[in-house]
Write a structure and sequence with these properties.
This protein is mostly helical. It has 15 helices and no strands.
């Protein structure tokens, strides 16, 4: 059954994989190139934050745009924007222009995600939706990691890597444009405000926002940190790939554990491990050797998995009919945090040095751990039978993917049980 489902969307997966190679490379490339162009660290942080601003607004406006002009036209327009904008960086090395280009890139990439995820959601069946979106999440993370290893193949000071990113975005069009499936309908769901979600699950909202700050900061400024401590491009490529690899290794075991015990305990544990690893990265003796890479893979893995845990925890307390809008809004909450992350991190690094990036990460994850412990004193544990199943969520995805993946998990559970799971009691707030 799953094999048939994968065969029906193989071209879509190939296109997404090619797109992620280019998208994974360009973030690291721009951080390094900005330093070469003489941008100070605070300016680099501000420039890189533009991606998340565009990503946030695209996640809101693209579904409306698609409903007006159609998937194919929107996809073509966004692909052209993404392919062109990366090349313009080499022509105009200006911080203001680069920030505008990052907004455009975030807008375009998020729009491409929305179209691909809508397509995948329509093609999937109730039985295959959850598994297909899990595969999709793995492709996004895995091929973004792979994109890092293109970095050493050419000089970041030259145009070759920028041209490569543009080629990857353009090549991604081919399998997707030839995908033999009718244009999909956009996923529609009712809205839910952050205030409403916070009333039900304060920890879910706070953890998503704080994780966004930490993740946005180190994915935008990690290459700047790595270059500042003396790594060459091959070392930077390895350095930036490790969080994706670490996440792929631990997300399923950690998610399974969180399905069995109080999820707040798992959130506390992961936040504490991430904080300890980040703290280790602020120690000068740990910088430059194997220890630094080990600490970074630990930090990247446990910091990244917190995002999915926070969404799953919030959904433990949200009534079933509100799970999809709640998940979508939590993704946007994460995106808002990601916008502030590079700004805060860049300013801190410019004032106190490169290790400040991980000092900020340590403080953020200590705060998440403490808040999770506090919430454990306020409400009882949700009974195991009333918890939602943990669903992996890629570090960069749109509300459609998160909602569809969680919807798939619900549908699979209902099919397995032979009955609707029913509506949880929203009084069990965390």
């Amino acid at each position: 059954m799953l094999n048939d489902a994968v065969k029906s969307v193989w071209a879509l997966f190939v296109g997404i994989a090619i797109l992620m190679v280019g998208n994974g490379l360009q973030g690291s490339l721009l951080g390094i190139r900005a330093g070469i162009e003489g941008f100070d660290t605070a300016t680099i942080g501000l420039v890189m934050s533009g991606y998340y601003l565009g990503f946030f607004f695209s996640s809101i406006i693209t579904p409306r745009l698609v409903s007006r002009v159609g998937h194919i036209r929107v996809f073509a327009a966004y692909a052209s924007l993404a392919s062109t904008s990366i090349l313009v960086h080499t022509l105009v090395p200006s911080p203001a222009v680069w920030m505008l280009l990052r907004v455009i890139t975030g807008l375009a990439i998020a729009g491409l995600y929305v179209v691909c995820e809508s397509w995948l959601n329509q093609t999937a069946t109730n039985e295959s939706r959850g598994k297909l979106f899990s595969i999709y999440m793995m492709i996004v993370s895995g091929f973004m990691a792979l994109g890092q290893f293109v970095l050493p193949l050419a000089d970041p000071a030259g145009p070759a890597l920028f041209i490569f990113v543009s080629i990857m975005v353009s090549l991604a069009l081919i399998p997707i444009a030839l995908f033999d499936t009718p244009a999909p309908s956009i996923v529609q769901f009712e809205t839910m405000s952050v205030r409403d979600i916070y009333r039900i699950s304060p920890l879910g909202v706070v953890a998503c926002f704080m994780c966004g700050i930490a993740q946005g900061g180190f994915f935008s400024l990690g290459p700047v940190f790595a270059a500042a401590v003396g790594l060459k491009t091959s070392g930077i490529a390895l350095f930036m790939s490790l969080p994706f690899v670490g996440l792929l290794l631990i997300q399923y075991p950690v998610g399974a554990l969180s399905d069995r015990i109080d999820r707040r305990r798992v959130i506390t544990l992961c936040a504490a491990v991430a904080a300890a690893a980040a703290g280790g990265l602020t120690v000068p003796a740990a910088i430059g050797g194997v220890t630094m890479f080990v600490l970074f893979v630990i930090y990247g893995a446990f910091a990244s998995v917190l995002y999915g845990l926070a969404v799953a925890h919030a959904n433990d307390h949200v009534p079933n009919e509100k799970v999809l809008p709640a998940s979508a809004m939590l993704v946007l909450t994460y995106a808002v945090g990601s916008f502030f992350g590079p700004i805060v991190g860049g300013y801190g690094m410019s004032v106190m040095g490169p290790q400040t990036l991980f000092l900020i990460g340590a403080v953020i994850h200590v705060a998440v751990a403490i808040f999770a412990l506090y919430r454990m004193t306020r409400r009882p544990t949700v009974p195991e039978g009333e918890r939602t199943e943990y669903v992996p969520i890629a570090i960069r995805t749109t509300p459609i993917a998160a909602a569809a993946a969680i919807e798939g998990a619900y549908e699979a559970a209902e099919l397995a049980d032979g009955a609707d799971a029913g509506t949880k009691n929203p009084e069990h707030a965390d």
